[in-house]
Amino acid sequence: MVFTGAGMSAESGVPTFRDALTGLWQRYDAQALATPEAFRADPALVWGWYEWRRHAVRLAHPNAGHRAVAAIQHRVPGTVLITQNVDDLHERAGSPAPVHLHGSLFAPRCSACARPAPVSDDAEGEPVDGRRVPPPRCAHCTAPVRPGVVWFGEALPGAALDAAVEAASSCDLLLTIGTSGLVYPAAEIPQVAARLGAAVVQVNPEETPLDGVAEVNLRGPAARVLPALVD
Ligand code: BJW
Ligand code: ZN
To answer: By residue range, what is the domain housing residue 154?
Structure first.
């Protein structure tokens, strides 16, 4: 199985959360943007920020690392891809059905009745960092639409978490790529695999808490290390 985090998309120009200079949480307050309380307090601030991030992802392209992951999946049928990322770069690189543990920028839903809502059209005007944009209203119950991502303090989507635990429990090798391993319960997935006897291979330019869990640490950026692995 393959388990990915924000570092996977860093070389596509999508910022990570915790990198020292470029991480989103260095520049933005997670409590004010990525919690249910923040959305209740200032829905337009939160919605505007996610519209800006969705727009940035639309302009980004999958990198050689995403393509290498897709190549692994095609070469080894049955490889499960679990991602913490809310972008769609794995899909666009040709990965079949990645499981999104932390939701998606492209799956907004009603904050009250949870029905899916349409993704806004970028033609409506380019979203700008920091601009408040009132969220659209649900077509069924008129409550504000919310981003379809998992905020701090929220449960992960049950089916996605089940799929991740199932894959970690039954795989013989887990390749973890570009995650700090700090956010739970996602960070438990490589630990579960290691505990049940799978080999864990990590790709990351920096040290992480998963270094001790991994049998092999490939210290480098995903877009360079992964193509070398599959070639
Ligand atoms: C490269 C690279 C290159 C760079 N190539 N690599 C204390 C202890 C334990 C837990 C908690 C605690 N206090 C609170 C909690 C719980 C909390 C948590 O874990 N907090 C910790 C931060 C302390 N967890 C939650 O709240 C979760 N829910 C929960 O626990 O619910 C309980 C519950 C149960 C039942 C009912 C109700 C509730 C939810 C977590 C949701 C996380 N959401 C986010 C935001 C998503 C939306 C958005 O995008 O805005 O998900 S936070 C953010 O972190 C995002 C990511 O998916 C997630 C993980 O980050 P990731 O991917 O690892 O990125 P980084 O930036 O951290 O690391 C990047 C890595 O890449 C680095 O290592 C770089 O070196 C590397 N890198 N360039 C390869 N080129
Ligand atoms: Zn609704």
So the answer is: 2-230
ipTM for the predicted complex comes to 0.97
Which protein residues touch ligand 1 with a CB less than 6 Å away? 5-7, 10-11, 16-19, 23, 34, 84, 86, 102, 149-150, 152-155, 178-180, 182-184, 203-206, 208, 221-222
pLDDT at 111: 98
Report the DSSP pairing between strands 145-146 and 81-83: unpaired
User: Which residue lies with its CA nearest to atom 12 of ligand 1?
Assistant: 184
CB atoms within 10 A of CB 44: 14
DSSP 18: S
CATH of the domain at 73: 3.40.50.1220
- Sign of the torsion angle spanned by Cα atoms 115, 116, 121, 127: positive
By alpha-carbon position, which residue is closest to atom 11 of ligand 1? 184
The total of structural domains in the chain comes to: 1
Mean pLDDT of the chain, nearest integer? 96
Cβ atoms within 10 A of the Cβ of 164, count?
Answer: 25
**Closest alpha carbon to 206 in 8, 19, 68, 14:** 19
pTM, full prediction = 0.97
Task: Please calculate the CA angle 89-93-99 and round it to the nearest 5 degrees.
Answer: 60
Ligand 1 nearest atom to the CA of residue 34, by list position: 50
Determine contact, residues 185/161, Cβ cutoff 8 Å: yes
Contact yes or no for 111/145 (Cβ under 8 A) = yes
Q: Assess contact for 109 and 148: CB atoms under 8 A.
A: yes
